[in-house]
Structure formats: structure tokens, C-alpha cells
Amino acid sequence: MKSRLLSSIDITCILTWTMVLALYSASSYAGAGHDRLERFFDHLAGLKADFEQTVVDAHSVTIQNASGTLRILRPGKFRWDYHTPYEQVIVSDGKKISIYDPDLDQVTVKLLDQTIGNMPALLLSDDQPLQNSFNITELGARDELEWLELDPRTEDTSFDKIRLAFNKRTLQTMELVDSFGQTTQLVFTHVQRNPAINPDTFHFIPPPGVDVVGDIGE
């Protein structure tokens, strides 16, 4: 049950974050938050970082803590390796997503656009500016971070808003608020822009002997 809960929460957050990375392009907005947003995404092709993830419910009760590493290539390719509270790997090659649960000896494979559900696959393309899909609002400075809020322009999404916080150098925090009032917060450390990443990182090969379920065709 814990593994399934983690997968559900993580996939929504991961796909949303990847969508933000894929869609962003420079805009004419002014303000300290927008300036840091544009500097971070300027010529961004890939990303590597460690993360701490916390999920709280609508009553501010913590229901999950997790940590791991992420690697992303724009658009649509990503790998999130969860190390605590238990191991889990979530990988996308841009077409399919593989979720590996070592404790279950199982890999679940789905088409990326089917996994997104009510988030159209188009949102993982880098052909459209971020501001075409979101209203972007400056929230000002808090704790030496500049905050921005992204509100989806359409209602057919599984989240209500995204908040991004930037320090003077890079993105530090992302918060995803879903339609039930649940908030997933990701705090990033050791962020590397455009690192050298082996393309095989995003091609997941199931370990021998594990069960593979789902859409496993080419």
C-alpha cells in the first residue's frame, strides 16, 4: 500500500514538474521572481539534483517524507530515484514511463500520455511557452527566496496551482497543490544545469526475474 501511494503522488508531481521544464520559454514579464525564472531556464537542456520531498494534507498533517535524486532532459525524459523511505525508480524515455518497485519485484510500464490522464501529452512538448498554459503571478520574497505562482488556464488538470521559489542562483523549492488541498513540496539541493548525462539513463531495463506489467510493446 505504501508503494502504491508513493507512486500515485510522485507521478503526478514528476509529470507536472517535467511539464513545467518542457514548456518554459522566456517572457516579457517584469519582477525579481520572473527575472530569476528566466535566468534559470535560459538555455536549460537538462538538470541533475538531489531532492527532499514532503507531502502534507489539507490540514497541514505530514503524510509522507521521501528523498532521492533526479535527472531530466528536456523535453519529456526524466529519471527520479527514490532512496528513502524505500527504493523506487520512475523513468521516462519520452514515450513510456516505467515504475520499478524493488520491494514488490515489479515494474509497471505505461504510455506517457496515458499516465498523464487529464494532462494532455501536448503539455510535455517544448513548442509552447509556459505562459500559454499558466497565469504567472509574482508572490514576492520570503525567506530570501523569490516566489512565483502558476495557475493553470484550463480546469482539466489534477492540480490547482504550482509554486516555484528561486534563490539568487537556482531553483530551490517547488510546491504542487492538488484539487484536494494536498501539497507536495520538493526542496532541491546540489542542482546542476546541463550536466553530461548518459542517454541510457532514461532507457530502463527491468532486472532479471521481476514481473513486468502494462504496455511493454515497442
Q: What is the CATH class?
A: Mainly Beta
Mean pLDDT across all amino acids: 81
SSE run: HHEEEEEEHEEEEEE
**What is the CA-atom radius of gyration, in angstroms?**
17 Å
Instruction: Figure out the total of helices.
Output: 3
Helical residues, percent: 10-25%
CATH architecture classification: Clam
Strand content: 35-45%
The separation of the N and C termini measures: 30 Å
Structure description:
With 218 residues, this protein is of the alpha+beta class. The chain has a single domain, classed as outer membrane lipoprotein receptor (LolB), chain A (Clam), CATH 2.50.20. The chain is built from 3 helices and 12 strands, in the order H-H-E-E-E-E-E-E-H-E-E-E-E-E-E. It has helices at residues 2-23, 32-41, 112-116, and strands spanning 46-56, 62-73, 77-84, 88-93, 96-101, 106-111, 134-142, 145-152, 159-166, 171-178, 183-193, 211-214. A 12-stranded mixed sheet has the order 7-8-9-10-11-1-2-3-4-5-6-12. A hairpin with a 5-residue loop joins strand 1 (46-56) and strand 2. Mean pLDDT is 81; it is low at 1-5 and 117-127.
Based on the model shown, name its key terms.
outer membrane lipoprotein receptor (LolB), chain A, twelve-stranded mixed sheet, 3 helices, globular
Brief write-up:
With 218 residues, the chain is of the alpha+beta class.
List the helices and strands and how they pair.
Blueprint: H1 2-23, H2 32-41, E1 46-56, E2 62-73, E3 77-84, E4 88-93, E5 96-101, E6 106-111, H3 112-116, E7 134-142, E8 145-152, E9 159-166, E10 171-178, E11 183-193, E12 211-214
Parallel strand pairs: 6-12
Antiparallel strand pairs: 1-2, 1-11, 2-3, 3-4, 4-5, 5-6, 7-8, 8-9, 9-10, 10-11
